[in-house]
Write a structure and sequence with these properties.
heterodimer; A: 78% helix; B: alpha+beta; 6-stranded mixed β-sheet; 5-stranded antiparallel β-sheet; 17 strands
């Protein structure tokens, strides 16, 4: 993690070191900084008109609201399950642990489109495995908000786990054992000892999940149905506007999405305690 | 008896950590579990604490069957080799932890924490985080934390193992004095025989998952039950087929004692007040340690003819050295 490598680095000098730095900066500039800057520049090409125009359109406001709502639900689900699964993986001898761990990485390696299609196969209203039964019971999953949440949860599943597992391993079990021997039950031990010691891992995991959930496109496109004012999310708005030659609108929406992600990172680095920096 | 262990066995896969161990640990004493690394002593301690469960056997603490009791119900204080300090809590909050869990009134907790911090000489560090303490201070904090809940037994797993030699010695003396003040039944694990001999009232020697001997430091040193215990507790040398302590041997220059055997001085090493003399007796090299005055009185040089015998007042154990495992 970042704070560990931080202690090991020391200032290097000499022409090679400066050359390497220059290369890294140029590379990052052309790959990340410049394109993102251009999005912002295009957004404000006509002042704030494109932004205000966006926020006056009730369908767009609905899409933004839906994106935030879905992302928040997905983050909560992924955090609770992510922390739970991490503790299970690190602290307990699970049968088949060797297989579970790579399985948890699957959502990162599989294309989101595949995730979307596979969800339709299971939950699709007409032909899915559970879909018709759920539909009869009054639950529509696919082409509705639950499907979007499901797809988002799926693609962001490993992010909390991958942040929390190494921290749990590094912290070790002794503090928890000490707490148990001092009379704390499992829940008290979790709240008072485990959670505070993995706090930063959880926060990074949450931020990454939030960013991923806000920005998910492929899986959501397949399962949402992309109905304007109903199941269209912010990323789908960007695509729609771009394809319909409404570039200012596309850039403005993209800018809002990027803004939230940047804000997340700023908030976390501001909150982070000094000794970790 | 405060802790009764009956027929406890524990395996980790193929490795037998404890093999049918039965021990009684007396109330109010300071007992050492002594043995080489990997001998099973820490496992036994963790089974007493409930941090491991025995495969078979029974653990009784203060007359209560604790075999299936979870650690938080055993009322046992546990001190870890690497302190297990709660890193995000101040020293005072660390010590208060067990009391907060027990929902004691705030005033009572504050008073008790103050008292304990005074006991372990950490009063001025109450508001620091564990990371701001030295190793010795952290371990004293861990001790105060374990004592705060007034445990029926205090268990320490190689408590000074991670500290440097000087601090280790200080803490060892301090633990002895602390125990004389607090009188809680205490069991500590160590692989350092000097630590066990110096601090403990009673020593349980554990090797390869079995109890080799239980006794006071004097009993163990003077009447070891077998060669293993003898070798583990102090220096040994072989004279004929006897295993003896080098300081229990005498060197004579003109003896007519039929029990003495003749040899030739091979090497003389002086270590401070102690003189170590190696004597070649036939094929065997026997080590004898003498005080400086004894050495000067004998007027020995390399090559001198001497007789070696076991000091008459010593009843050393008979043993066949080759039957003893590696130490």
């Amino acid at each position: 993690m970042a704070e560990l490598s931080h202690h090991r680095t020391r200032a290097r000098r000499g022409p090679i070191a400066y050359l390497i730095r220059l290369l890294v900066i140029v590379y990052l500039f052309f790959l990340v900084a410049w394109p993102v800057y251009l999005v912002a520049k295009n957004t404000f090409a006509d002042g704030v008109d494109s932004l205000t125009g966006l926020l006056e359109d009730p369908d767009i406001v609905h899409a933004l609201g839906l994106t935030v709502q879905v992302a928040l639900i997905a983050v909560v689900i992924n955090t609770v399950f992510g922390v739970g699964i991490s503790i299970l993986l690190v602290r307990y001898a699970l049968p088949g642990k060797r297989w579970l761990s790579p399985l948890l990485d699957l959502p990162l390696s599989v294309s989101p489109i595949v995730v979307g299609l596979s969800l339709i196969l299971v939950y699709g209203g007409r032909t899915g495995w559970f879909g018709p039964a759920l539909e009869d019971a009054g639950f529509q999953i696919i082409y509705a908000t639950p499907g979007i949440v499901l797809a988002t949860v799926f693609v962001a599943l490993p992010l909390v786990i991958r942040e929390v597992v190494p921290v749990l391993e590094e912290v070790g079990e002794e503090q928890e054992q000490a707490a148990r021997s001092l009379g704390a039950n499992a829940l008290q031990t979790f709240w008072r000892i485990t959670l505070p010691s993995i706090k930063w891992g959880v926060i990074y995991g949450v931020v990454l999940s939030l960013a991923r959930s806000l920005g998910e496109f492929g899986a959501v496109k397949v399962v949402s149905g992309n109905v304007l004012g109903d199941t269209r999310t912010a990323t789908l708005v960007v695509e729609e506007k771009y394809l319909n030659f409404d570039k200012p609108g596309a850039y403005a929406t993209a800018f809002l999405l990027a803004l939230v992600a940047v804000a997340c990172i700023i908030v976390v680095s501001a909150l982070r305690p000094k000794e970790d920096r | 008896m405060s802790i009764e262990i009956t027929g406890v066995s524990k395996r980790f896969g193929d490795f037998v950590a404890l093999d049918d161990v039965s021990v009684s640990i007396p109330s109010g004493g300071l007992t050492a579990l002594l043995g080489p690394s990997g001998g099973g002593k820490s496992t036994l301690l963790r089974i007493i604490a409930g941090l491991e469960t025995a495969d078979t056997g029974r653990v009784e603490i203060e007359g209560v069957d604790a075999t299936r009791l979870s650690p938080q119900k055993r009322n046992v204080g546990f001190v870890f080799q690497h302190y297990a300090a709660f890193k995000h809590l101040s020293v005072a909050r660390n010590v208060a932890f067990g009391l907060e869990i027990r929902k004691k009134p705030k005033e009572e907790i504050r008073a008790r924490v103050d008292e304990l911090l005074k006991l372990v000489h950490l009063s001025q560090f109450a508001d620091r985080l564990p990371a701001q303490l030295s190793g010795g201070q952290r371990q004293r904090m861990a001790l105060a934390r374990a004592l705060a809940v007034q445990p029926s037994v205090l268990l320490l797993d190689e408590p000074f193992g991670a500290l440097d030699a000087k601090v280790r010695k200080e803490l060892r003396d301090w633990l002895r004095r602390l125990h004389d003040e607090v009188h809680v039944t205490t069991v500590f694990v160590t692989h350092d025989q000097e630590e066990a001999l110096e601090v403990a009232d009673e020593i349980v020697v554990i090797n390869e998952g079995r109890v080799e001997q239980v006794g006071s430091p004097d009993e163990l040193y003077d009447q070891p039950a077998n060669d293993f215990v003898m070798r583990f507790l102090g220096p040994v040398t072989e004279l004929g087929d006897r295993l003896v302590r080098p300081h229990d041997l005498q060197l004579l220059t003109d003896s007519t004692d039929p029990g003495a055997v003749s040899g030739r001085v091979k090497r003389i090493t002086r270590i401070g007040f102690e003189i170590r003399v190696e004597v070649a007796v036939g094929e065997q090299d026997v080590t004898v340690t003498l005080t400086r005055n004894e050495f000067l009185a004998l007027d020995l040089r390399v090559g001198s003819e001497v007789q070696v015998r076991v000091a008459p007042e010593v009843g050393a154990v008979q043993g066949r050295p080759e039957a003893v495992g590696a130490v």
